[in-house]
Design a protein that fits this description.
Layout (H helix, E strand, L loop, with lengths): L1 E10 L2 E11 L4 E5 L6 H8 L7 E5 L6 E4 L11 H6 L3 H19 L6 H19 L5 H11 L16 H14 L4 E5 L7 H13 L3 E5 L3 H7 L2 E6 L2 E5 L3 H36 L6 H13 L28 E10 L2 E11 L4 E5 L6 H8 L7 E6 L5 E4 L13 H6 L10 H7 L16 H13 L5 E5 L7 H13 L3 E5 L3 H4 L5 E6 L2 E6 L2 H7 L5 H6 L30 H39 L2 H5 L1 H32 L2
Parallel strand pairs: 3-7, 3-8, 5-6, 6-7, 12-16, 12-17, 14-15, 15-16
Antiparallel strand pairs: 1-2, 1-4, 8-9, 10-11, 10-13, 17-18
Helix pairs in contact: 3-4, 4-21, 5-6, 9-10, 19-21
Length: 655
């Protein structure tokens, strides 16, 4: 659908990438990968038509529609959630108004036998059929299904978007994008603002209902579950693999080993040639051979080895001074917005030197409690005490977006550095991959990962003994996550980490606080100890369990630990009950699989029919419209069945 030929992008005469060519086909699921700053977001902007390349061509067919979700966007606060989502169907409303106008004209005119009147009837019939074909009568159901899939409740639909955090407002933009059903979806870090339950819904949507998808993400599981093709940007070139991310990692390693062998062989050949030239340069009898070797050397096409990111990124949080024994003590702390209780009766004590994790679904109050500790929120109930000599360093979810775009990298750090540190700014920046000319880059041209690195440097320069990190891994590539993890592990002070990333928390947290249903529960041990206690294998299952439901059922019989006492635990099931449950699970899994296969077949049939209808002959054939309407109705029916079966399957798994 989209053809890229000879693409080249330069910044300050330095190529970001050049001579890039590839094609995006229908139903492609492409992961765009590469280290931070390699040009992934730039590539998406060029495909979206928001940025022009230095040279090269991006050919997009006229009928091809493109949807783009950037990492950062400016959102409106003037509408409700439903009104904002309905903007995805502006074209439906315009068509509806046009049909209404034509209907009015047909009712008012009396020249029934005229050619003009007949043309109006034909146009009205055609537009009305097209309106029905595009789902003009059931768009609201589609909106509700999408919003609920992304974590909104029905009670949220009429709330103003201004009441929601940046992450939730980003979900509204994602919903609008998905509802428009573009031919090509370009998604830049779509999981950064989603909890695990919503990520899973998005995975299912992209796998079963989206058309072509190109996405940038540092979530390995998400890439593996969605994509089937991987394009890597490295050394200013691209490498195109027709495999998912995990297989790509293996193939890339093999490719680099081959390149290294070829590079070493070529270097030996070059060295031998240069030695020959140097040895016989001034011998008349060897002049012809020397000239021949010089020409041979000039013609050699030098082999480049893919860059390995070995730059000296070293994070080290220096503990400024010793704090009191108990940096944070909460006694019966509660916070509500009007009638909406975020949490209540929170009692916790964090000891000096502890590294604790806050986990739970979005909206359960993790960031709210952090803001209470930071004194950004003061109208809470209960008592919150900070210990003696506590000096807090805070990394907010949107910290990277709070940087001043007009400043350079150097000036950003120069403004916060004090004392002798000011003489070492360039050394510090060099250690964070901002060496040389990179320190003179404007903040506005930095990638999301580079912005996060810069925000981390600012935090490093603060004298602290208590780190609070709210989703610190957003926009960081996998290597940078490991570096940050090592730095936190070596920090001598106290740390609170708010994160959904189980792998990042593993080996860091010595205590886990679970936010669920207005309560905050303490679990001693690391993240895997916590998961084991819950008798689950991942945070994904935790998010779906009754213990972490954002809206627990009123009057439900719950035990002291928040579990549903009316349901037997898996360990209490008898052999016969377990056998029956397994049979039920297999039956539901088969039903879900059958529905997914039927969805794929029906969408393929619709695509073929729409291609026929796009021709002059097809647009005049009314039987095509009837057939299309039947297929759309069939697709809606199967989608409903798939939705029901999926819900039943999840419920059965949590029995």
């Amino acid at each position: 659908m989209i053809s890229v030929e000879g693409l080249k992008v330069e910044f300050n005469a330095t190529p970001l990438f050049e001579d890039v060519s590839y094609v995006i086909n229908k139903k492609d699921r492409i992961a765009l990968v590469g280290k931070n700053g390699a040009g992934k977001s730039t590539m998406l902007k060029i495909l979206a038509g928001l940025q022009q390349p230095t040279s090269g061509v991006v050919a997009v067919p006229r009928e091809c529609t493109i949807g783009y979700l950037p990492q950062v966007m400016i959102l409106s606060d003037e509408r409700t959630v439903m009104e904002e989502a309905e903007l995805a169907f502006d074209h439906i409303f315009e068509m509806q108004a046009d049909i209404k106008r034509m209907n009015q004209q047909l009712a008012e005119r009396s020249d029934y036998d005229s050619e003009d009147y007949q043309k109006l009837i034909d146009r009205f019939t055609h537009e009305n059929e097209r309106f029905l074909m595009m789902g003009g009568t059931n768009y609201r159901a589609e909106i509700e299904r999408t919003l609920q899939g992304l974590g909104f409740s029905r009670a949220d639909f009429e709330r103003s978007t201004s009441e929601f955090s940046g992450g939730w407002r980003m979900r509204i933009e994602l919903a609008k994008l998905l509802l428009r059903r573009p031919n090509v979806l370009l998604l830049d870090e779509p999981t950064n603002h989603l909890d695990i339950e919503s990520i899973q819904w998005l995975e299912n949507f992209l796998s079963t209902r989206a058309n072509a998808v190109v996405l940038v993400s540092h979530d390995r599981a998400f890439l593996n579950n969605v994509t089937t093709r991987t394009i890597e940007i490295t050394c200013g070139r691209i490498y195109d693999y027709k495999v998912k991310y995990d297989e790509f990692v293996v193939l890339r390693k093999e490719r680099r080993e081959q390149q290294l062998r070829a590079y070493e062989n070529q270097q030996k050949q070059i060295q031998d040639t240069e030695d020959f030239i140097e040895r016989f340069r001034y011998k008349a009898t060897k002049a012809v051979q020397v000239q021949s070797r010089i020409k041979q050397l000039e013609k050699i096409e030098r082999i480049e080895v893919d860059e390995e990111d070995n730059s000296a990124l070293r994070l080290k949080f220096v503990c400024s001074s010793r704090s009191g024994n108990y940096p944070v003590i909460c006694e019966d702390v509660g916070k509500a917005y009007g009638d909406h209780v975020i949490f209540h009766d929170v009692n916790l004590t964090i000891n000096r030197g502890e590294k604790v994790a806050f986990v739970g679904k979005n909206g359960e109050g993790k960031s709210t409690l952090v803001k209470c500790v930071m004194d950004e929120i003061t109208d809470y109930t209960g008592k919150l005490t900070l210990g003696h000599n506590v000096q807090i360093g805070y990394f907010a979810q949107n910290q990277a977006q709070l940087l001043d775009d007009s400043l350079t990298v150097f000036n950003t750090i120069d403004r916060v550095a004090v004392g002798d540190i000011r003489t070492k700014i360039r050394d510090i920046l060099g250690a964070f991959m901002f060496g040389g000319e990179a320190s003179d880059k404007k903040v506005k041209v930095l990638s999301g990962g580079e912005r996060t690195h810069l925000a981390m440097i600012k935090l490093l320069l603060e004298p602290v003994n208590f780190l609070i990190l709210d989703e610190p891994t957003n926009h960081l590539d996998m290597r940078s996550k490991d570096v940050l993890k090592d730095a936190i592990r070596e920090f001598d002070g106290t740390v609170i980490i708010v994160s959904h990333d189980r792998d990042f928390l593993d080996g860091l947290a010595t205590k886990v606080y679970e936010f669920s249903g207005g309560l905050v529960k303490e679990h001693l041990g690391g993240i895997y100890d916590f998961l084991q206690k819950k008798q689950i294998e991942s945070l994904n299952e935790l998010q779906k369990s009754p213990a972490l439901s954002a809206f627990p059922s009123a009057g439900k019989n719950t035990s002291a630990n928040g579990a549903d006492a009316s349901q037997p635990s898996p360990t209490k099931l008898s052999y016969e009950e377990q056998k029956e449950l397994n049979k039920k699970l297999k039956k539901l899994e088969r039903r879900v699989s059958d529905c997914e296969a039927e969805i794929e077949q029906t969408e393929a049939a619709i695509a073929i029919l729409e291609a026929k209808m796009a021709t002059p002959e097809g647009s005049a054939d009314m039987s095509f419209y009837e057939q299309h309407q039947k297929l759309k109705a069939q697709l809606d029916r199967v989608m409903e069945e798939w939705d029901t079966a999926s819900t039943e399957l999840e419920a059965a798994r949590n029995t």
